[in-house]
Write a structure and sequence with these properties.
Layout lengths: L6 E6 L9 H20 L4 E4 L5 H13 L11 E6 L10 H13 L2 E4 L8 H11 L3 E5 L6 H11 L3 E4 L6
Parallel strand pairs: 1-2, 1-5, 2-3, 3-4, 5-6
Length: 170
């Protein structure tokens, strides 16, 4: 199993709560890039994401792009792990989000599926799975309620280093 101190997880909102303004979204992507770069420089080599459309897939795409960089001074293998709450979670998404989802999963080093079919509580189970295997979190959390709130609170209880990019100067 991957050492917890070398792993980071992502949690955040779906596309509907991400910035609508293209310039703001690009600034957020740049901040995310910089935070992932810092994490890699700090020894993180495994990234967990919950594979939902929006923040999760944006983070996964950024990790995949970071993997393309060759660091001559400190070569490092970077792993991307998708954690699915259930097999068909994307079945009702729009076509564009499903296409990004399946293309991203195909590039992961590992895909973990917790359940074959939807089960009550499977999203929280997925989130706990990622927190329990990580020492750090990068999130996009607006302070509201829901799955992201649950995950951030669970991560706080488990002493993860949390970087929240919501409300940053974008």
């Amino acid at each position: 199993m991957q050492k917890k101190e070398h792993a980071l997880m992502f949690t955040g909102h779906r596309s509907e709560k991400l910035p609508k303004d293209e310039e703001q979204l690009e600034k957020l992507k740049q901040l995310l890039w910089e935070e992932i770069e810092k994490a890699i420089e700090g020894g993180i080599d495994t990234f967990y994401f919950g594979a939902c459309y929006g923040w999760d897939l944006l983070c996964a795409e950024t990790v995949l792009n970071q993997r393309k960089i060759i660091r001559m001074d400190k070569p490092q293998q970077i792993k991307l792990v998708g954690v699915l709450p259930w097999e068909d979670q994307a079945v009702r998404w729009n076509e564009a989000n499903r296409e990004i989802y399946y293309n991203t999963l195909a590039q992961c080093d590992e895909v973990i599926t917790l359940h074959t079919h939807f089960q009550r509580g499977c999203y929280h189970e997925r989130n706990r799975y990622m927190v329990d295997r990580s020492s750090e979190m990068i999130c996009y959390y607006d302070g509201g309620s829901g799955g992201t709130a649950y995950t951030v609170k669970y991560a706080e209880k488990h002493n993860l280093k949390i970087t929240n990019l919501y409300g940053t100067d974008i």
